[in-house]
Amino acid sequence: MPTAALSLTSDQQKALDAVNSGRNVFITGGAGTGKSYLLRAIVYTLMSSGKNVIVCAPTGIAAANVGGMTIHTTFNFNSSALIQPKRKKPIQRVTSPVKGADVVIIDEISMCRLDVFEAVVSSIVKAETVSGIHKQIIVMGDFYQLPPVIDGGQFDRQILTDYYGASLGHGYAFQTPAWNDCHFLPVVLTQIVRQSDPTFAHNLNLLRIGDTRCIPYFNTHSSPLEIPGAVGIYAYNANVSAVNDAMLASLPSDEYVNHTVLYGSITESDLRVLPEPLKLKVGARVMMTANDLPDPYNRFVSSVDTRQYYNGTVGTVTHIWSDSKGQVTCVDVDTGTTQFYVYPEDFQLFAYHYDSVKKTLSRINVGGYRQFPMKLAYAVTMHKGQGQTVEAANVAPYCTNPGQCYVALSRVRDIRRMHLLQPLDAGMIHVDPVVQAFYDNLKDNPPVPVISVTQAAKKPGKKSNRPTGDKTMRIPNELVPLMQTVIDKLYNSPASGTVDLEKIQKFIDEAGKLL
Question: Rounded to the nearest 5 degrees, what angle is found at the Cα of 8, between the Cα atoms of 7 and 9?
Fold first, then answer.
């Protein structure tokens, strides 16, 4: 991604500037504000400056979309609740790549469960102590979208409730003490790049925050008729499977089943990423699941755009080529305006390797799988649709979880290319009040300032036990009220220009003794 190729909105540039400051940064914003594009710009910029960067995400799909790894693979976590039962504290895992990293980026932070986030921060704190390398933490995502999943089948909810208390709820990352310890600088992206219609964008934002005044707009401005060939978006897997199976069975042509081919070192965590066998017939509607560019960091930027399809492109299979063993080798797809050939693609799985001699961090390919970058497009779940843009959709807006309705209705660029299979009503719009309170507090109370000092008074040889992100002294939580009192007294009016430097120095010296 050459610097000249970067085309950022003013919001995105503000976020990039915040990242370049070295602070821990929380980047958020609604659907369609270009978070995925921005992430690639951030990774490129940091790596170009010589930083060792780790990119990870809570789910395999999200990790694959950004060319990273799952959080569990990056930190070598197991799949159960990440609380040490005897010591009653988050699990710590210091892997070699984390020790050598300068920056750790977590994408889709909304789906990161609170115990996972605490374990991540705890592990980074320990890695800082062991390596002596400060770690900048960058988290990206929208908590108004899909929440974390707590698997009750493994007694995770009971374990987490015992540890965090009965108010666990959906278990968001920001509900942990670790979130406050990171002192994130928040950057809110507000400029929508997916939808060009400002009225549509405005009502999507109302839907995002649970404002029911958007209901008449969606019911009256969406397509009154079901859109032929458009993807169906449903809340539940059962609906999606039933629609896809029924539509495929209705086609008279022969069915081909293309199995996913695995190679290299595949872990249990990786297996969750793998697509199911792909069933195809001539005449089947399919959706592309990747852009027509091989490098995951450059999928969204190209000086000469030669791509024939994008993640979310929908078309019809017109011909299927297979070898003597019946394995599909090529699929012809027609979108109505373009025709292209699709071949099996290698989806690589990565691990991070830290060279302790060169002190460099590199991604290495440890394996992968081969499959066509497509899936049946008659229907998808709201969860699978997150992060995708589609040309047209028939949406069943009924859902029961926070963020689902908003994710479903924000997949299209033009509201006229969306049909609601049933009218939208207030009972379908779910927003977690915990999330609302978090964002209200984000607006009203910016983070506590970081006090930069040339030489912080610290005990000889003692290292910070917090992820600092930059070489500044951070005020402990217990000193925040006192610090605020000092600031209020010294700056008793906004235009105050007289500062008692001796009092500030005395305060810094006292604070340093407690670090």
Answer: 130
313 lies in the same domain as 268: yes
326: left (phi over 0), alpha (psi -120 to 50) or beta: left
Q: Are 91 and 182 members of one domain?
A: yes
| Assigned token pair, 271 | 């297996």
Q: Which of 330, 358, 391 is the last residue of a domain?
A: 391
Residues for the chain: how many in total?
Answer: 515
- Looking at the structure, do residues 163 and 269 belong to the same domain, yes or no? no
Pairing of strands 53-57, 69-70: parallel
pLDDT digits (tens, 9 = 90+) for 292-337: 764 444 444 444 446 677 777 888 999 999 888 777 889 999 988 8
Question: 121-130, 195-204, 304-313, 453-462: which has the highest mean pLDDT?
Answer: 121-130
* Residues 254, 304 within the same domain: yes
pLDDT tens sequence across 355-369: 777 777 676 777 778
Instruction: Single out the residue of 88, 397, 34, 70 nearest to residue 201, CA to CA.
Output: 34
Q: Are 382 and 286 in contact (CB under 8 A)?
A: no
Do 254 and 355 lie in a common domain?
yes
Cβ atoms < 10 Å from Cβ of 443 = 9
Is residue 210, in this structure, part of any structural domain at all? Answer: no
- For residues 105 and 162, state if they share a domain: yes
User: What does the pLDDT look like over 441-482, one tens digit per residue?
Assistant: 886 554 443 332 222 233 344 444 444 444 334 444 445 455
Please report where in the chains the tokens 């670790």 appear, as a residue: 178
Model confidence at 497, pLDDT cuts 50, 70, 90, reads: very low
Bridge partners for 393 per DSSP: 231, 418
273/126 same-domain check: no
Distances (CA, A) of 13 to 7, 37, 233, 298: 9, 12, 33, 18
CB atoms within 10 A of CB 340: 16
| Cβ within 8 Å of residue 167, ≥6 positions away | none
Quote the number of domains for the chain.
3
| Assigned domain for 106 exists | yes
Domain limits for position 345: 231-391
User: Model-level pTM?
Assistant: 0.70
